Structures are given as C-alpha cells and as structure tokens.
Amino acid sequence: xxxxxxxxxxxxxxxxxxxxxxxxxxxxxxxxxxxxxxxxxxxxxxxxxxxxxxxxxxxxxxxxxxxxxxxxxxxxxxxxxxxxxxxxxxxxxxxxxxxxxxxxxxxxxxxxxxxxxxxxxxxxxxxxxxxxxxxxxxxxxxxxxxxxxxxxxxxxxxxxxxxxxxxxxxxxxxxxxxxxxxxxxxxxxxxxxxxxxxxxxxxxxxxxxxxxxxxxxxxxxxxxxxxxxxxxxxxxxxxxxxxxxxxxxxxxxxxxxxxxxxxxxxxxxxxxxxxxxxxxxxxxxxxxxxxxxxxxxxxxxxxxxxxxxxxxxxxxxxxxxxxxxxxxxxxxxxxxxxxxx
Length: 341
What we know:
The protein is an alpha/beta fold. The protein is built from 17 helices and nine strands. The chain has an eight-stranded parallel beta barrel, surrounded by four helices. The active site is at 102 (proton donor).
C-alpha cells in the first residue's frame, strides 16, 4: 500500500539506530519505538534489484508508528537508485540513505557498499539522481577508508565530492572497511575506531550534518561525541541493550513524556503482536508469521537486570513459541520478578 508522505515535523537526527542486516526489520523497529519516540530508525539495507525486480511490498511495508524512519538502499546505478528512492518516498519513508559502508563480499560483487568509496564521483552521480527524484533527504553512510588507506585526506575528499552533489548529511562509521580478508563481523571490530576523523569532518565542513557511528555503548560516550558532531548512531548496543534508549527522549529531545517501564514496553507490544499474527497467520510449516520473528528482537530488554537469563530462556522456548501466544511476553517477564525481589 503506497502512502502519502509523512507530514509531521521530524525530530533531529541527534540519535539514531543503525541499519543492521537481519536485525532492524519492521518488528525490531516497532519494538524500539516503544522505548524511544524520537530516535531515528533505519531499515536493513534493501538493494535496488530487490525493489525493481522483487516484491516491493515485502521490502518496503512498515508501521506508521515507526516514524521517523529511513530507508537504506544498496546500489550503484544512478537510474536504479533514483527509481528505488522514489518508491521509498511513495511508501512514506522520511529519508533515503545510500550504503557506502558495508564490506561484505556479497555487496562487493554487486559493486556497491564500502567499495563505492573508491569512486566518489559515481556516488555523487547516484546522490544527484536520487535528490532529483525525491523531495525527502538523501543521506550517505560510509566508512573513513578502505583497506590500507589510512589518510584523513581520503575521507575528506570523498565527503567533499558528495557534498558538492547536494548531500548535506553524512553518517560516518569511524573505522576502515577491509574489503578482503575480514568478515563483516570482523570489520565491525578489528579496524581501529578513529572518532577524530568524524570530528575533523565537522570542523572542515561545518555546514554539513555529521553523525558518528561505530562501537558506541554508553550515554557518556554519546555525550562526549555530541560535543564534536551533530548526531550519534548506535548499532549493536541498541539491539543487545535496547532499554539504554529509554532516557533518550528526555535527555536529547527535551520530551517530558513519562518513560515506559520494561513491563509497559512489553505490554505495549501485545496488541501489535496479536494484530500481526491475525493479519499474517500464525507461523507453521505452511507459512505465516512465527511469534519468534518478533520476540527474537526483544531478548535484550532485561539486559543488566536480575532475571535477564530467565527472561531470555522463556522467550526462546521453542515449544512455547510454537503456540503463537503473545502472552508469552508477560510470562517471561513474570519469571524475572522473584529474582528481582
């Protein structure tokens, strides 16, 4: 179902949750939205081929409650990216983001992701084509270098060329992408973080919005980065410890709405889960939606709390999950209470 463009005033990109393959699907984003109202959510990367030759609804459908939400695209053909960006705008996304940071071999074979950093003029052409096609923001997520290119000048020149094409927002994963020899997981951990490169970009391009990403885990780290750049994008920490975001609306957006407790977050998800199961059918051998497709994103809600292990065990019980009963959420939470007493 194609929707009209979301018209509500959008919050700043001061805080956001990174696009993460196999993780930040619409169920994950809906869960995160129960914890923070203003933090930006990003989709998993969607390739232009999947949109132009596949099931558009399956890739682009999302829940209205997810706003502000950005669609991340993977591709390197300006015309295909323009068509895909237009689809994203028609479906109601608030931003189109181009992936210039993913180092996986699958992405490299498609000649996009981090390897695009070696072709800044092509990226500029892609950005211009998308900006000409849509009225919403077009942004770029990238690394600071590829392989053994360590010079700050490399990323400075890359950003400069893309900025000349009209891009005003850059999300900087502040480490190199090693295109050969490291897995995507290793690429998130082994190349050293160089936050100072993101800081220097903001200094050299004060007119641009610079958002830093990579290895950020605490509110103290967020606060430190925000002294130098415009925004912070959380990755794995937002997924594994989502309740870290509970204070974001008040702390970073001045929203005095009472913070939901963990129990209230779970309760808020119950109608959504019931609706999804009713709409798509309970998962079984014949298809439908498995309860685990939603609850798997919620395993980290009790991180750091007494009973966290019991909570995860209950939500991972295959026999109980097979019943498709959303009440499993509250059963899992109830198991934590004697341990928390």
